Amino acid sequence: MRFLVIGLGSMGKRRVRNLIALGYQDSIAGFDIQEARREESKKYNIEIYDDFTTAMTQHKPDAVLISTPPNLHMEYAYKVVEVGMSCFIEASVVDSQKILELSRIVEGKELVVIPSSTMRYYPAPKKIKELIGAGIIGKVLNYNYHTGQYLPDWHPWEDIGDFYVSNPDTGGAREIVPFELTWLNDIFGDSKALACVRRKLTNISAEIDDIYHCILEYPDNVIGNLTVEVISRPKATRDFRVIGSEGEIVFSGDTNILKYINTKMEEWETVNFDQGTVEEGYINPEEPYINEVRDFISSAKAAKSGEIFNLPNTLEDDYKILSTLYELEEISEGRDDLSR
């Protein structure tokens, strides 16, 4: 297969590395409108284009990976689907109606459109899902999850004003809420918004809310407390605890250790996770990203061959999650109106 990566920023370059790791070095092209990003990507020894149409006609990809800012995801996805190609899309935060409509357009076609669900490929969420599925802590009652990283540390090499996370529609904290709900909903079921408080608490040079406090309800009366922020420094925060009728599961991103206990155990059982391969300038390992690209490729090949397959994530899933985000924001706005 031949691939085109649209957008050669931080994530686009990661997707190029993913494809190289999967053995496609000679089949990759990249497209970006920014000269600096095209120059940076030359180190990967791939074909590079400054025009989308030229990239499509000259490279002739079989599938496309869209790693642009979120507000451009659907623009390129519709173009790619129109010519009958499968595509992979990074996590979205806008255009929910276009996402839903695209899901209807691709239904029955021999192609796939797969939104990113990277966190599902991390070892800790996978282990948490396994333990809950096995009933280790009995009936799930509640989870508390806090995740955050200081926004200027995301891309320290560029001005935050040049980065889409400074845009209110695609702001850093706002983007991460659906990013995290993708794996949380995979474990606990479809979420319903109950309460939300969002604010700008810092002097970060972007007019965005830098923290979201969310309360969510899941099937079978499970309650989730989710805090997403872009203010934690100097280190990122990732702390998770789920309480069940018979035990608890706890994960700390600081130690990369998960532990669990139930009423039949004397002591905590501990699971240590390997740090994985971390590229210079990045904080997250390559392996989860590689594995989700591998699944995308497998699904695209299966669709082209008319085989039966399961998608790791769907456009309908993304639409539901974005609907929850919008509901949370409406609740927050209503609360603010009442307090005035």
Describe the structure.
- This protein has 340 residues and is of the alpha/beta class.
- It folds into two domains: 3-115 and 287-312, Rossmann fold (3-Layer(aba) Sandwich), CATH 3.40.50.720; 119-273, Dihydrodipicolinate Reductase, domain 2, CATH 3.30.360.
- The chain is built from nine helices and 14 strands.
- The chain has helices at 10-21, 35-41, 52-59, 73-82, 96-106, 123-133, 172-188, 287-304, 315-339, and strands at residues 3-6, 28-31, 47-49, 63-66, 86-89, 113-115, 140-148, 192-199, 211-218, 222-229, 237-244, 247-252, 257-262, 269-272.
- It has an eight-stranded mixed β-sheet with strand order 8-9-10-7-11-12-13-14. A six-stranded parallel β-sheet has the order 3-2-1-4-5-6, sandwiched between helices.
- α1 packs across α8.
- It starts with a strand and ends with a helix.
- The model has no long low-confidence stretch (mean pLDDT 95).
